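User: quick one
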Amino acid sequence: MPSDNPVSDAAEGITKGVLDWSLEKITSFISKLKNKKLAFLENPQTMETVMDQYRSGEGKFYRNYITDKSILPLVMIGLTLRSVEEDEERLHTLRDNVFKKYHAEGLHVAEFVQMGILNRYIGILLEELTSIPEFKNSIEEILKNIEKHTLFVRTTNKKAELIKSADIKIRASSPRIFIISGIKSATKLVSESIDSFKVILKDYEFERVSNNEKEILFFKRKNH
Amino acid sequence: MEIVSLKEVSLNSKITLLQKLGYNSDGEFVLDSHGTKILDRYIEIPVKINNMAIFPGSTIILDDNEVSITSYLEEFGEDALR
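Assistant: Done. Structure below.
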């Protein structure tokens, strides 16, 4: 008989080596599967990690204010990316899978959440909150147009091309909030470029979120 | 919901399970009834027998990864995995 204890069979398998199931046991499992009482997973930890994000306060907050079905999975995946940051191999595999399904722009949305940029962006929105519909719209707008609002800096970028790229984005869409972000080895390049960014973003107020792992610059358009 | 880990389950048992669900395997990949490799519904990679996920009430077989599980939850609702 299968145990009621989740993942019990895995534990049984570990003590006995490879686990062989009888036909009766398989039939019983399939009956439970069809009755929506059972799931099979190679590694239950994968699902647990995902479900932890759905149970988290931050996950619930986002699910309350982001309703766009094309964006919400990426936001949840962004939280998962953050939760596996300590496991380089898992992080790498997850990023690969995000790229396979959502390409570079989708990966940028997930990274935006992973790096805590979205929650600071929301903080800035809250400072000027006028209505909930506008608040929700502003969140979805930046996530749907991530490349217009954000410059993701890579180690391979050159300072001059970064400045040019930021300038083009600002001139093209004049975003209310513009964000420049770099992680790990790209943090140095971002910090070294701050003064140049300030020149082209002179009509913006500047805020910096920085530690050893990330360098994120927020530019908020001044109210005249 | 009971979660059954497949990690320590023998290849033969996994193949029998698949056959009972209308699938098959060549020992590496999950195959449909025509012998064609099935692709993960969301990230469109062939599902390997050593990394599959089968969810309650469903006969969809996915690759066991965070993107596919999140996509499944978004398509079928969180209650599908409770």
